[in-house]
């Protein structure tokens, strides 16, 4: 299979007065669709290689650049936040007339996916959370909006990129080098502040563990010290530790990521 089977599409709609022009990738199929939600500083192309893995034959693929990210347009970047991203995901599902589906979300996309699954509990078949926020400790990137506060959002973003580039974690330099191309600075504050607020006060762990669908939590071996891993495993969540990886399995170890996803979705 080749990426020629992916169609690039534009989706235009409005949410709460904010006009969106989304860049999307879509592949049709006769099995349950898989909706992919990318993380902060990533893009829909993180998941384009799905079509190269025979294990996903027949599954429709839906991936898109979130508002303020990648090739997607947004009429008011200051309005971009996790609630807006949730509304966007709901509209995308409506556009493609999706009923039941598999859900994969990374980091910011994992948090958005958790809220989406909580809102549509009877429609999510399985949820793979790739280091999406479920506890306050997960805000190691987003909490910098508080710990390194700067009223100049461009200056904050520049400093954030510099710090991330030097971080002693797998793929950090690669990730940081692409941030200016994948996120508009005007969207950063709303995204980060809403991620911190939800992680601190949104009862995310309770929401995650109460989901009726099958659940997997994927994390890099550099983050094996997350305090809640044993807890969520005891509550029936499958764990997938990615070797030679920090926060970004799609960059550090994509073969492992795709094998783990295929095994989980096909279970």
Description:
- The chain is α/β, with parallel strands linked by helices and 267 residues long.
- It is 36% helix and 20% strand.
- The chain contains 10 helices and 9 strands.
- It has helices spanning 82-95, 108-119, 144-147, 153-165, 172-182, 188-201, 204-210, 229-234, 249-252, 254-265, and strands at 7-15, 18-27, 34-37, 61-64, 73-74, 101-106, 124-130, 214-220, 238-242.
- Strands 1, 2, 3, 4, 5, 6, 7, 8 and 9 form a 9-stranded mixed beta sheet that branches.
- A hairpin with a 2-residue loop joins β1 and β2.
- α1 (82-95) crosses α2 and α4 packs antiparallel against α5 (172-182).
- The arrangement of helices and strands along the chain is EEEEEHEHEHHHHHEHEHH
CATH architecture label name: 3-Layer(aba) Sandwich
Taking all residues together, what is the mean pLDDT?
97
Shape: globular
Low-confidence stretches: none
Oligomer: single chain
CATH level 1 class label: Alpha Beta
The radius of gyration computed from the alpha-carbon positions, rounded to a whole number of angstroms, is 17 Å
Count, helices: 10
Q: How many structural domains?
A: 1
Q: How would you characterize the largest beta sheet?
A: 9 strands, mixed
For this structure, what is the CATH homologous superfamily?
A: Alpha/Beta hydrolase fold, catalytic domain
Structural class: alpha/beta
Portion in beta strands: 15-25%
Distance between the termini: 22 Å
What share of residues is helical? 25-40%
CATH topology: Rossmann fold
According to DSSP, the number of beta strands is 9
